[in-house]
Amino acid sequence: MHASASAVNPGALRSRLAQAGLRATRQRLVILESLLTLPGHPTAEQVHRHVVGHSPSISLGTVYKALDSFVAAGLTRRVASAEGASRRYDADCTEHHHLFCTDTQEIIDYCDPQLDELIRQFFAARELEGFQPRSFSLHVVGTRGMK
Please, are residues 42 and 105 in contact by the beta-carbon 8 Å criterion? Predict the structure, then answer.
């Protein structure tokens, strides 16, 4: 996901942090901007490499803490790789699913209202005792066929 220029201007970044209940520190602003501008679903290490170009004093630990605070505040979501070894982050918090290609390690966003309705109907028919689903996100592992 590449954010538009207006989504990464300092005022918009400060507003997003404030709406999430987070202070707009210099480190959080730089990390959030990187997360919004890096392609795909970056790891904390990829965000850190991007951030140190602008702010060399920011440590990898600071990046992890900021990303974890973004997840807790609902600004971003954590997405696992197929093996679950690396944590990747998704700045798009709208409802969508992920297709993970084991050949390229790429995570592809996938939206399908018909699939979403099938999932809702499936769980409504099951009447899970004491459980009420509020949201869902599928993580489908496979390979991307060559065209």
Answer: no
Structural domain range at position 67: 5-90
pLDDT grade, residue 129 (50/70/90)? confident
pLDDT for 75-92, tens place per residue? 988 887 656 566 888 888
Question: Distance (Å, rounded) from C-alpha 33 to C-alpha 10?
Answer: 9
Look at the chain and report how many structural domains it folds into: 2
> Same domain, yes or no, for 109 and 84?
no
Q: Which helix (H) or strand (E) holds 69?
A: helix 60-73
Annotated binding site for Zn(2+): 101
Q: Are residues 76 and 108 in the same domain?
A: no
Share of the chain above pLDDT 70, in %: 89
Binding-site members are: 101
**Quick check: 104 and 144 in contact, CB under 8 A?**
yes
